[in-house]
Protein: ATP-dependent zinc metalloprotease FtsH
Organism: Postechiella marina
Amino acid sequence: SKAKLFDQNTEVKTTFKDVAGLEGAKEEVQEIVDFLKFPEKYTTLGGKIPKGALLVGPPGTGKTLLAKAVAGEAKVPFFSLSGSDFVEMFVGVGASRVRDLFKQAKEKSPSIIFIDEIDAIGRARGKNAMSGSNDERENTLNQLLTEMDGFGTKTNVIVIAATNRADILDKALMRAGRFDRQIFVDLPNLSERKAIFEVHLRPLKKAKGLDIDFLSKQTPGFSGADIANLCNEAALIAARTDKKAVEKQDFLDAVDRIVGGLERRSNLFS
Ligand code: ATP
């Protein structure tokens, strides 16, 4: 059915408060919030509002969260799809899905379109020539470029895409008037991890004196998604032994479990 072609959220609750750290990236996307809320402020001076921005960074660093927060801050609908959904698509379906997505977003404008894993659609042409689905991928990419080029100056739809492989993207995507802004979303440093812990510890019943500084120091290399996962694992570990609150040791056990998983993950890819 049509409803399943992409996700649509007309009442996004996520705001910048939910995004810990990423101060630089938040500052950059604040401009997009402003474009969506006060387009006339820019267009009366003859400026053209940008159509697209690319969020670039490792997995789990909050790219989806940040894009959603832009929609939440601007109070506009959020349309999203993931590039990886196109991988096994039948001929013609990818392009028509893109067309439908843009049609809906324009009807509900001002709005945000979010395309996660855009590299699955937007890989440089000519690579992976062995794959039979290559033509389909190119059709989908071409449709996306056509839609973005077709935006009139009054179409207040902004397309945000995310990738952890900007280096493999087709340069046509980055041309002026398309995804001509790149915003970097990096792994959190120590103080950013503290801020992320604060967000994800909020719903937990914590033992007295639980030291966020200590937890942040124990988790170098963790992404925001890893920290969210860690907090949840710690709560589950504590619950298993019928504790009344989540203790330091539960977090350390959860760290061991997650680091074990991360090591297995990187061994698989090395
Ligand atoms: P991927 O590249 O794997 O799609 P992503 O960068 O889009 O990842 P998200 O899906 O936004 O990452 O993050 C997953 C979850 O991790 C979020 O829903 C949130 O719970 C947590 N998270 C990640 N980054 C942050 C952050 N900066 N602040 C708070 N929570 C975060």
Observations:
- The chain is about 45% helix and 10% strand.
- The mean pLDDT is 89.
- The first strand starts at residue 7 and ends at 9.
- Residues 19-22, 59-65, 116, 162, 164, 196, 199, 224-225, 228 surround adenosine-5'-triphosphate (CB under 6 Å).
